[in-house]
Amino acid sequence: MLSIKFILKEPNKETSLIYIYVFSGQKKPFKYSISEIVPVKYWNKDTQKTRELMEFQRAKAINKKIDRCRKFVESYYEEKSAIDADDLREKLDVFLGKKKEVKEDTRFTTYFKLYLDTNATKPNINAYTTTYSAICELMPDSVEIGQVDYAYLEKFQKLFQAKKIKRYKNKEGQLPSLNYSSLQIKNIKAVLHDFQKKGVPISDTIDDYTKSEEEADSIYLTMQEIEKLHKLELPKRLEKARDLFLVGCCTAMRISDYKSLSKDNIRDGMIYKATKKTGERVVVPIHPIAKEILERYDYKLPILSEAKLNKYIKEVGKLVDMNEPIIITKTEGGKKISRTFKKYELITTHTARRSGATNMYLNGIPSISIMMITGHTTEKAFLKYIKVTKEQNAQVLASHEFFQAK
Hints:
This protein has 406 residues and is α+β, with helices and mostly antiparallel strands. The protein has three domains: 3-95, no CATH class; 108-208; 223-404, Orthogonal Bundle (hpI Integrase, Chain A). The chain has 15 helices and ten strands. It has a three-stranded antiparallel β-sheet with strand order 1-2-3, covered by helices on one side. A three-stranded antiparallel β-sheet has the order 6-7-8. It is elongated and about 110 Å long.
């Protein structure tokens, strides 16, 4: 049962502070000064207010304050069903202007920074750091996390792709591609959904904004090209890069996984490896080329940074005359841009993984079996990933017993 009283602190003196006493079943009442001093002779003990006389002009203001405090405590109790002394004192301080209310920082950038700090060891955290930096630069008017909606995402993606954003040019001097800007949207959504799971309200329109993507014009190496690379005599610097790359071609693993293979991962002609990105365990039969390379290095593959491997493998590709012209078309700065490259110029560490998956498919291995290596969760995503033409697919089908029936 709630009981509220206003009592003079020092009723035997000429003036006294007014205190509010709150009783709600606890052993000791909650006491709080409302920061008003009243001449004791003007205090009415029965009404617990000051007498409103001409000679005491502040009486009305003090009485209004008493009423406001009473209503505030009643509302507090109605909401909480109990009195938390520290919490009520804090709230009365704010209510009466003794303290400024410390508002929770609900800006999206604050939440994003918290995400970065708490996920610092995630393998792809650098990609999120790039997104955070872009938000801080392109969307300087900080909005609350709940205000990040369809319109916000649309505006951000347009700004990210805009020609004036020079910082985001890559080393070839190109503007951000549509796919790269869509990756930023994916990262923003991931952060928002992470906090939603923790009870933070977010806009229900963000999932209506579908990130536009275009099919990447990425290459793969044929088995003939892979075998040609394997037989090539090279100086040690390039040989190490070539060998590491070919292990990727024969396993369809990410570089973060195939570069760290050791003897502990090999059992009964199989490679057992927990992937760094997801922690999923994959099992891959050892291809003869991969086996030869692993044995030659005594299962201790060369250590090369991804940047150096990307550089050296292009040199290797050039040595075997991978000069086939490849036209790459991307949306950059909102415009379709086509450029022609020689095939070797497009080889990267990821080409190894794509080559492995594509060649497995072309050799008749079922999609579902390859997906258990690559980690693709849908066949649609897998078929989009590999580089197989309709003609190549028809050749795979032609070898099936269904088409061999007599």
